[in-house]
Amino acid sequence: MNNDLAFNLKRIRFDENYNPSKNTRATTNFANLARGEKRQENLRNALVMIDNRFNALAHWDNPKGDRYSVELEIISAELTLRAGSNDESFPAIEILKTYIVDHQTGQRIEGIVGNNFSSYVRDYDFSVVLAEHNKGQTEFNMPDDFGQLHGIIFKSFVNSAVYKENFSKSPVICLSVSSKNTYVRTGNQHPVLGIEYQQDEPSLTDFYFGKMGLKVRFFMPQGSVAPLAFYFHGDLLSDYTNLELISTISTMETFQKIYRPEIYNANSAAGHCYQPTLQHQDYSLTRIVYDREERSRLAVEQGRFTEAHFIKPNQTILAQWSAESVL
Predict the structure, then answer these.
(1) CA-CA-CA-CA torsion for 117, 123, 124, 126, nearest 10 degrees?
(2) Please, what is the angle between helix 39-57 and helix 242-259, to 10°?
(3) Are 226 and 183 in contact (CB under 8 A)?
(4) Between vectors from CA 199 to CA 194 and to CA 203, what angle results, nearest 5°?
(5) Rounded Cα distance, 110 and 243, in Å
(6) How does 219-251 read in b/e, with b if 16+ C-beta sit within 10 Å?
(7) What is the pLDDT along the chain (327 residues), one digit of tens a residue?
């Protein structure tokens, strides 16, 4: 099956002049910032927030808090189902790559790939498949093969020659904690990732990312007000340098402050036992414009787009892969 999949990478710089490509999901974190009258101001303010947060965490040998800046590159992985064919490619996965610029030494240091995670098939699974499967049901449940196809695509990408040629380490995806779960502090504390939390039960996102071969740990970095969910393969604490981890924290915590201010820009920090909620009222807003209701509506539209342009035209081969996958 892997020989039938071909991935092509496209890269675009995420800066204050960024304009989303036609294949970028409109609900993607960075695409949301780059629309409307305030687009350039949004982008500029978000990038400043990322740099400030990075320097606050990388405070050693950095007395003025301005030694580092973060550069971001959007990586789009386009998928062709039959390698070597003339089949039209589909925008399968979109992630972020961080780079750290050390203004003291002049170095440009590789950061982590992953960070944000965008997928049309994920929209389809969550906004179309789950909704239709549970229509008229009294209790929520998942189809037996839920997330199987998406897991195949993601693992095929990470194991592909094109990924290995471009990236030296496995991806790390950093997301918000689930508002349906409770998180309790452990006795573990990492010098960069901060205080570790454990959840009371796995979330639907944990299950879905498990299909992608990723496990999860929850950490609240110093100066943060809520834990972040880190999805990874391997050893999160040993496989990455401090600067690499800080590049992910500073980037994704900034996005979360913008999109989930009730949790990540709250005016008080999570305690020993923490239940995140979007109904929390004691929080501050950033100076960045964002329409959360539009994002929810577009997720359904993008799920239907995936169904029409990827799932249905290829349903025979996709069903076969889901059934026979041994990845």
Answers:
(1) 100
(2) 140
(3) no
(4) 120
(5) 9
(6) bbbeebbbbbbbbbbeebbeebeebbbbbbbbb
(7) 445 678 999 999 998 888 776 655 454 556 666 666 777 888 899 999 999 999 999 999 999 999 999 999 999 999 987 644 456 788 889 999 999 999 999 999 999 999 999 898 999 999 999 989 988 888 888 988 899 999 999 999 999 999 999 999 999 999 999 999 999 999 999 999 999 999 999 999 999 999 999 999 999 999 999 999 999 999 999 999 999 999 999 999 999 999 899 999 999 999 999 999 988 889 998 888 776 665 566 778 888 889 998 999 888 888 777 776 644
Close Cβ partners of 230 (under 8 Å, ≥ 6 residues apart):
172, 173, 174, 193, 216, 217, 218, 219, 236, 248
What's the token pair of residue 38?
């305030």
| Positive or negative torsion for Cα 274, 278, 281, 283 | positive
Task: State the Cα–Cα distance between residues 124 and 132, nearest whole angstrom.
Answer: 11
Measured between alpha carbons, how far is 305 from 239 in angstroms, rounded to an integer?
37
**Which residues neighbour 118 within 8 Å (Cβ) at sequence distance 6 or greater?**
24, 25, 27, 28, 29, 93, 94, 95
* Residue 99: both structure tokens together: 């780079």
Q: What DSSP element (H or E) covers 176? A: strand 172-176
Residue 80 CA to residue 88 CA, distance in Å, equals 7
